[in-house]
Amino acid sequence: MRIAAISDIHGNRKNVRRLAETLNQEFEALLIAGDITHFSGAESARTVLEPLLEVGIKIVAVHGNCDGRDVPELLEKLGISAHDKRVEIGKIGIVGVGGSNMTPFHTVWELSEDEIREILERNYQKGDVILSHVPPHGTKADLTHSGLHVGTQALREFIEERKPPLIITGHIHEARSVDRIGETLVVNPGPLFRGYYAVVDLDKIRAILMKL
């Protein structure tokens, strides 16, 4: 199964339209790892997502810490939300974690480490893919320009314990990368607002970073 993965759109409709033009029948799904808007609400999110919704492939999404308070409700109404639930694409299960861990900036959607852990424990089944806006701690995917790892410890510990095959994440714009925690592939496609996305082969569990 071949999927596209994106994160951190931050309202860039131009790049969403460009991405929509590149998606075709070779992709079976699109995973969106949050920050669809830049501190905007549901109507803005709907406008941003519209070109992707028109492509006609399966979309699974979570909100990010910079999405407005009503964005998760919109994703539910559109039938594409994976936050705090398990959804399936074919035989592949996907568990979603929206928002981020706690930040110094007091953004819209922030969760405690305990809340992140509870979401994972409540929904995960062996072999599922995890779609999380915030990356696991201590990887290339959560490394900031200042050299700090700012991802979630709860997700890191969960990966070490349960060994999911794949994590799709975002949040840290400069941390575009493909990394591993043991056998788990960790993919931060980079921000779509800068033209970045990833192509993931779910059968072989490998990813290629792409640019529009």
Q: How are the secondary structure elements laid out?
A:
Blueprint: E1 2-6, H1 13-22, E2 29-33, H2 42-53, E3 58-62, H3 71-78, E4 86-89, E5 92-97, E6 100-101, E7 110-111, H4 113-123, E8 129-132, H5 153-162, E9 166-168, E10 177-181, E11 184-188, E12 196-201, E13 206-211
Parallel strand pairs: 1-2, 2-3, 5-8, 6-7, 8-9, 9-11
Antiparallel strand pairs: 1-12, 4-5, 10-11, 12-13
Provide a descriptive summary of the structure in words.
The protein contains five helices and 13 strands. It is of the alpha/beta class and 212 residues long. It has one domain (2-211): Purple Acid Phosphatase, chain A, domain 2, CATH 3.60.21. The strands form three sheets. Strands 4-5-8-9-11-10 form a six-stranded mixed β-sheet. A five-stranded mixed β-sheet has the order 3-2-1-12-13, with no helix packed on it. The radius of gyration is 15 Å and the shape is globular. The two termini are 21 Å apart. 49% of the residues are buried. The mean pLDDT is 97.
